[in-house]
Write a structure and sequence with these properties.
Elements (H helix, E strand, L loop, with lengths): L11 E2 L2 E3 L20 H8 L2 H6 L5 H14 L4 H25 L3 H6 L4 H34 L3 H7 L3 H8 L4 H26 L3 H6 L19 H12 L2 H10 L10 H36 L10 H9 L7 H7 L3 H33 L1 E2 L2 H22 L5 H22 L1 H12 L1 H8 L3 H20 L1 H9 L5 H42 L1
Helix pairs in contact: 1-13, 3-11, 3-13, 4-11, 4-12, 4-13, 4-19, 4-20, 6-7, 6-16, 6-17, 6-18, 7-17, 8-17, 9-13, 9-16, 12-16, 12-19, 14-16, 17-18, 18-22, 19-21, 19-23, 22-23
Length: 524
């Protein structure tokens, strides 16, 4: 099997290469799976890509929204986590299927139908979305280093740049081992939260009842600590479904060797890749559900005023804030808070791997350029640490709570780029997997997948546009004035108009591109 560090013969100028071959060419089709294995052994052979995708659904950006939602509204928002996870399974299934059947990742498939100008625009927008997720990883990793080893925060931020050395090491071991490392880190995160939640003795029946949405789930009237159920639900949805995962899955689903002349082999790959994805995303659902249950059962109601990672760490160390005598006894030894910081560090390192691979996918797909993984990681990480460093320096003279709140706001405000980029990955994905011309009669979306897909995609786009004003308000202040709120409304309107205009441009070019591809096939 080839490793990520092997070179591919391409035009090269310095460290930049021309790339217009298979997606992630160094690992594309590099893992063979014999056809005569039984179900479980075959499933194990296909397992791995789903874990890399699931990481994006349990990254540091998800933590505060789920825990705070639980503390404020009990188990009410459990249903939102479930719905988000089911939508994620549907979208990731379509992304993986696109890659396996068409032999193109999502970026390549879109670029094949659009002009170079639009390709560059979409590439820049997607890169900004990737960097926005990187900000949460920088903050999560830096805070974990600060909490575990008492490294000053500004130094810890710079140290996160050196995770490029971890990436360099991983490029030498082979993709299958990278998958195994990611799975191990996911298990660390899962086991930490299982341990802490079990100790808290939650109301399991109440959590199960919370899986069924009610009229209160999306209510905008009840407000707790400045949050309504609707804003809490939007926060969970926004932190869960992210565009870069669709690009990543459409690429790494092609790492298994496939005989595309054998329709049954393609079907087998789609089936087992879907199993892998759904199993790993189920783990992600449990992690997010456990985070919300922590908010309900671990802490006393309203006890945690500081919902940042610092505040949660301190709360797990404080016997006054915990709701259960067993937790109080364990907290005295610092076990709960230390495990929390370890899980936070594991989450950040997982995202290092997936974020870098996704960046390579979109760069190669949209603009046909490629740089070494270590160089791309170094560049994007250095860009991502800039706003974090500015935030830390500007709040250095303020109280700890104010500094923590500012850093937490930075994570939340960075999500606006995800809201901007999400429609441009979801809609093309749905259109192309609905197409018999693209997917063939056997692999195009079935009627129920098509219906659920359109409902999910349109709902997510609506919620992102609807929540844009609140996202913009977050840039001004936690307690905005009437003038700031009005200005945020105007800015949000302009952003939404730009999103819709760019979306129309994209859809028109996709339609015209489909016609060109059909005409070229007829000519042949």
């Amino acid at each position: 099997m080839r490793t990520l560090s092997e070179n591919v013969s391409q035009k090269k100028k310095g460290i930049v290469e021309y790339a217009n071959g298979p997606s992630l060419e160094e690992i594309n089709g590099g893992i063979s799976v014999p056809k005569n294995w039984g179900f479980w052994k075959t499933l194990f052979a296909y397992s791995g890509p789903g874990a890399l995708v699931a990481v994006g659904y349990m990254d540091p950006g998800n933590w505060a929204t789920s825990i705070t939602g639980g503390q404020n509204f009990g188990y009410l928002l459990m249903s939102v986590i479930l719905i988000s996870s089911l939508i994620a399974m549907l979208l990731q299934y379509m992304a993986a299927k696109l890659g396996i059947v068409s032999q193109m990742d999502l970026a390549q498939a879109i670029r094949a139908r659009t002009t170079r100008t639009l390709g560059v625009v979409l590439w820049i927008m997607t890169e900004l979305a990737i960097m926005a997720t990187d900000i949460a990883e920088v903050i999560g990793g830096a805070i974990a280093l600060y909490l575990l080893f008492h490294i000053p925060l500004i130094i810890a931020v710079f140290l996160t740049v050196f995770d490029v050395l971890i990436l360099l090491l991983l490029t030498k071991v082979g993709f299958r081992k990278i998958e195994a490392i990611v799975v191990c880190l996911i298990l660390v995160i899962l086991l930490v939260f299982v341990y802490e939640v079990v100790l808290s003795r939650p109301d399991w029946l109440g959590s199960i009842k919370g899986l069924v949405p009610t009229g209160k789930t999306f209510s905008n009237s009840e407000q707790v600590a400045g949050m309504t159920p609707l804003s809490g639900a939007l926060g969970i949805i926004g932190a869960t479904v992210m565009p870069h995962n669709l690009y990543l899955h459409s690429a790494i689903s092609q790492t298994r060797a496939i005989d595309h002349n054998d329709e049954e082999d393609v079907a087998r790959t789609v089936r087992f890749t879907t199993w892998d994805s759904n199993i790993q995303l189920t783990f992600a659902f449990f992690v997010n559900a456990l985070l919300l249950i922590m908010g309900v059962a671990v802490f006393k109601t309203g006890a945690v005023q500081d919902s940042s990672f610092f505040g949660l760490f301190d709360a797990l160390n404080s016997t006054k804030m915990l709701s259960n005598p067993i937790l109080v006894g364990v907290a005295k030894y610092g076990v709960l808070s230390t495990l929390f910081a370890i899980a936070l560090l594991a989450s950040g390192q997982n995202s290092t791997i997936t974020g870098t691979l996704t960046g390579q996918v979109v760069m190669e797909g949209y603009v046909h350029l490629k740089v070494p993984l270590w160089a791309r990681r170094l560049i994007t990480r250095l860009i991502s640490v800039v706003p974090v460093i500015i935030c830390v320096l500007l709040t250095a003279g303020e109280s700890d709570i104010q500094q923590h709140a500012a850093i937490n706001d930075l994570i939340e405000n960075s999500q606006i780029f995800l809201a901007f980029a999400l429609p441009f990955s979801m809609l093309p994905l749905l259109m192309m997997t609905d197409s018999e011309e693209e997917m063939g009669k056997r692999f195009k979306n079935t009627l129920w997948v098509k219906i659920l897909g359109w409902i999910s995609v349109l709902l997510l786009i609506f919620l992102n546009l609807y929540n844009m004003q609140d996202a913009v308000v977050g840039f001004f202040s936690d307690n905005p004035t009437a003038a700031q709120t009005a200005m945020a409304g105007h800015i949000a309107l302009v952003i939404n108009i730009l999103i819709v205009a760019l979306l129309v441009w994209t859809l028109v070019e996709l339609h015209l591109g489909d016609k060109r591809l059909k005409a070229s096939k007829l000519d042949k």
